[in-house]
């Protein structure tokens, strides 16, 4: 997972602490080092927490069940089309006094030969995920605001 300054996904933030101007979007790309074009990365859930623990119970979902939770604050640019997924989000500090936010995403590889991998988010749908296909959560941060 890589964080970017710009909507073209050209200028990435260096690893370590990322400081975002309050109210500015964060551009996120998630990819796998796979070469088989028959597979696609599908973001299942992306959420923020105040800790680096992806199991933290205090979560703010940006993407849930493959779809943005609030289209005014989250824009999915690419999901289920290739070996990378991309989205933009307006992040904000979470409650609790901790100035740091961590971003976590769970994803899976989808076989485009046998499945339609691109999520359809017009209406709420139930999902069925084979837990064997789901990869461990990917975490990045800390992120703070100025």
CATH topology: Immunoglobulin-like
> Number of domains in the coordinates?
1
Class by helix and strand content?
Answer: mainly beta
SSE string, helix = H, strand = E?
EEEEEEEEEE
According to CATH, the homologous superfamily is: Zona pellucida, ZP-C domain
Q: Provide the CATH architecture.
A: Sandwich
Count of extended strands:
10
The top level CATH class name: Mainly Beta
Query: Total helix count?
Result: 0
Organism: Gymnodraco acuticeps
Keywords: Disulfide bond, Signal
Protein name: Uromodulin-like
InterPro entries: ZP-C, ZP-C_dom, ZP_dom
How does this model look, in words?
This protein has 146 residues and is mainly β. It has a single domain, classed as Sandwich (Immunoglobulin-like), CATH 2.60.40.4100. The chain is 0% helix and 42% strand. The strands form 2 sheets. A 6-stranded mixed β-sheet has the order 2-10-9-4-5-6, with no helix packed on it.
List the defining traits of the structure above.
six-stranded mixed beta sheet; 146 residues; single chain; Immunoglobulin-like; four-stranded antiparallel beta sheet; mainly beta
Nutshell version of this structure?
By secondary structure, the chain is mainly beta. The chain has strands spanning 2-4, 18-20, 25-31, 39-49, 60-64, 67-68, 74-78, 84-90, 101-111, 138-145.
Write the layout of secondary structure elements.
Elements: E1 2-4, E2 18-20, E3 25-31, E4 39-49, E5 60-64, E6 67-68, E7 74-78, E8 84-90, E9 101-111, E10 138-145
Parallel strand pairs: 2-10
Antiparallel strand pairs: 1-3, 3-8, 4-5, 4-9, 5-6, 7-8, 9-10
Organism: Gymnodraco acuticeps
Keywords: Disulfide bond, Signal
InterPro entries: ZP-C (IPR055355), ZP-C_dom (IPR042235), ZP_dom (IPR001507)
């Amino acid at each position: 997972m890589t964080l970017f300054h710009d909507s073209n996904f050209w200028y990435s933030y260096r690893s370590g602490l990322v400081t975002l101007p309050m109210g500015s979007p964060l551009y996120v790309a998630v990819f796998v080092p796979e070469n088989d074009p028959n597979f696609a990365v599908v973001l299942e859930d992306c959420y923020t927490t105040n800790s680096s623990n992806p199991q933290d119970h205090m979560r703010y979902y940006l993407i849930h069940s493959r779809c943005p939770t609030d289209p005014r604050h989250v824009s999915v640019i690419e999901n289920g089309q290739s070996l990378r997924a991309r989205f933009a989000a307006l992040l904000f500090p979470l409650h609790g006094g901790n100035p740091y936010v961590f971003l976590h995403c769970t994803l899976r590889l989808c076989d485009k030969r046998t499945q339609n991998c691109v999520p359809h988010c017009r209406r709420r749908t139930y999902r069925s995920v084979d837990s064997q296909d789901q990869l461990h959560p990917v975490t990045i941060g800390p992120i703070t605001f100025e």
